[in-house]
Amino acid sequence: MLDTVMKETNTDFNGRTWKPYLLLLVYIVLFSLSCSSTLNLRTVDSLYQSSDYQRAFTEIENLEKVFLKTQGPLVYALDAGLMAHFAGHWDESNMFLTNAERIIRENFTESVTANIATFLVNDNVRDYQGEDYEDIYANIFKALNYYHLGQFESSRVELRRSTEKQALLKSKYERLLQSANKLASEKGQPEVSVEPISIEFSNSALSNYLQMIIARDTNDYVDALFSYNQIEEAFSRQPGLYDFPIPISVMKELDPIPTSEVRLNTIAFSGLAPVKMERITHIEVSPYNYAKIALPVMIDRSSQVSAVEVRISNGISIELQLLENIAKIALETFKLHVQYIETKTWIRSLLKSAGTAIIDSTTNRLSEDAETEELSQLYSLVGGVLGLISRISNYASEQADIRISHYFPAKAWVGGVNIRPGIYDVEFIYKDSRGKIVHVEQISRMRFYADRPNILESICPY
Amino acid sequence: MKICKKKSIALLCILVLMLVALVSCTSAINVDRIGADTDIDLSGNWNDTDIRIVAEALVGDSLKASWIEQFRIRNGRDPVVIIGRILNRSSEHIDTSILSKRFELAFINTGRVQLVADVDFRETVREEREEQQYFASEESAKALGKEIGADFLLQGAVRTNIDQVSGTAVRTYYVSAELIDIETSRKVWVGEETVRKLIKQSKYRL
């Protein structure tokens, strides 16, 4: 391919000699537009890890301008929305997450120019569309916000919306796979192979669990039963994502509750979902000319937590069980995007290196054809400098798109118990695989009601 | 040649100035009054047009049905209706109280149906009546136990179904309403209106 490009340039040499240099100038301008500084979340992370969610949320708000400049409005809305949720600002969290949902929807329609620029510069030049799991779990956290606000009907609306998005995933993955294969075949690359697990996720057990509880406690047994069946289906049809047993408490959720008691459901979130990092490799295209391949990879920040115990002040203690491995879903659903990104990155990087090769070749030709020795040396010098600039800008511009939200949890644990309505103190105890306590959250004077859902939520940053 | 060039530059400057003036004259917010029956769809979500279509169809259907006349023949008086809740079972945040109000308005305006305060307002009315017993004059305080018992309860639900592939979706709203005889739990009228929308979102924009 490179030979062909070079050959064509040599044929067109007369009259259009300076074209490669002009293209380089255009490219440098484009690249300078795509440059971005980095976002430092060390303070937010430290506050989050010390469970100071209020200050972590304030810190995110203070960083708004840096967020918008480096990561775009979607990542800001997701991070602020999640932290506002952990800090107990339900309305604000809903506002941010609704905004995030709107941006994801709007960014589905891509700018043609930005899309073309992704083939010339890097993927950062287009608006971040969000990962699939971010879109789905934004609705789940909105549902929890509405639950805390006592708006159960709105909570169910959010869960239905999440279900709709999950249903769309399968067809979306099939379309993405087709696009990657089409792109690969057009550029003479081998067809993309994807593990079947990546197109498996189309049903979230956590989403259905919440639907089941709220429907049950608002006397909609038909919907509650439907959601229960969907949980069973999520485990049986997606064994790669749900490679652990269905929680025992889930199977008891629709059992009759004694008249003097209410059902308390507990949800504990632990750890953090994966983030993206840049992985760089180099391929030699021609002498002193390397193609830089910068790809985003998802890094698991999985939870240390292996068990969660809930102690209630009436003496009852329950062990929560894992219902959803959000981190695994994030990693798996990203796999198919990786195939598309990889194909595109390879093509772009090779084209950039081909551009450098063209500059080198044009310089050589100009130098050879120069009428005087001085002119020949001048061409060599100018061409050499431009070739160097081209190499530097190629190297610097080839950046992986590592935009992603930072505070979705990694795991969701659930449990349920029947208790008498009233006021209780509740303690969530998080333990690692050796039984060592890694985090404790105490929730004082919680009232559990007879005529409404009773969901108690806890978060462990580890 | 030089004069011609100067003229061109001057013309270009004027054009640029005119463009700047035009842009600066444009207000960031532009408001136009439009008719209530003008259909405008922006996002594809439930909007005023859907409310109008559904309310007209369901209210009209409920008034055309024979339940009012049958009740009057049997009881010699107008039926008393309480407007219950229209549940939102859709995947959108829909204020269903607008539909309830449309029913209320239409029933009262017929002059053949009497309405009593619904659940949300009944408590306020009762509190006011109880307070009148202590704070209002004897002759103006309203008596307790004189509420009119409703004969029928109107309730309903909004449900949605969505079929979507990539940027194309068919969203269908099923809005149902029913009148239930409170004494016998018999349904005297059931109506449903369907709104179907084809929503397309382009993959690319300029």
List keywords for this structure.
heterodimer, A: 462 residues, alpha+beta, seven-stranded mixed sheet, two-stranded antiparallel sheet, 19% strand, elongated, disordered N terminus, B: 206 residues, alpha/beta, five-stranded mixed sheet, 5 helices
Description:
The complex is a heterodimer of chains A (462) and B (206). Chain A is of the alpha+beta class and 462 residues long. In chain A, 53% of the residues lie in helices and 19% in strands. Chain A has 15 helices and 10 strands. In chain A, a hairpin with a 2-residue loop joins β3 and β4. In chain A, α10 packs antiparallel against α11. Chain A is elongated, with a radius of gyration of 27 Å. Chain B contains 5 helices and 6 strands. Chain B has a 5-stranded mixed sheet, with helices on one face. By secondary structure, chain B is α/β, with parallel strands linked by helices. Chain B has helices spanning 2-25, 48-64, 67-75, 97-110, 119-135, and strands at residues 80-89, 114-116, 152-165, 168-181, 187-200, 204-205. The longest helix of chain B is centred in the N-terminal third of the chain and has 24 residues, at 2-25. The A-B interface holds A 105, 108-113, 115, 153-154, 156-157, 160-161, 163-164, 167-168, 171-172, 175, 223 and B 87-93, 160, 162, 164-167, 201-206. β1 (110-111) of chain A pairs parallel with β6 (204-205) of chain B.
How is this fold's topology laid out?
The complex is a heterodimer of chains A (462) and B (206).
Chain A: H1 2-11, H2 19-34, H3 42-49, H4 53-62, H5 64-70, H6 73-86, H7 90-107, E1 110-111, H8 112-120, H9 132-148, H10 152-186, H11 205-217, H12 221-237, H13 248-251, E2 262-270, E3 275-286, E4 289-299, E5 307-312, E6 317-325, H14 326-369, H15 373-397, E7 411-419, E8 422-431, E9 437-448, E10 454-460
Parallel strand pairs in A: 2-10
Antiparallel strand pairs in A: 2-7, 3-4, 5-6, 5-8, 6-7, 8-9
Helix pairs in contact in A: 1-14, 2-15, 3-4, 4-6, 5-6, 6-7, 6-9, 7-9, 9-10, 10-11, 10-14, 11-12, 14-15
Chain B: H1 2-25, H2 48-64, H3 67-75, E1 80-89, H4 97-110, E2 114-116, H5 119-135, E3 152-165, E4 168-181, E5 187-200, E6 204-205
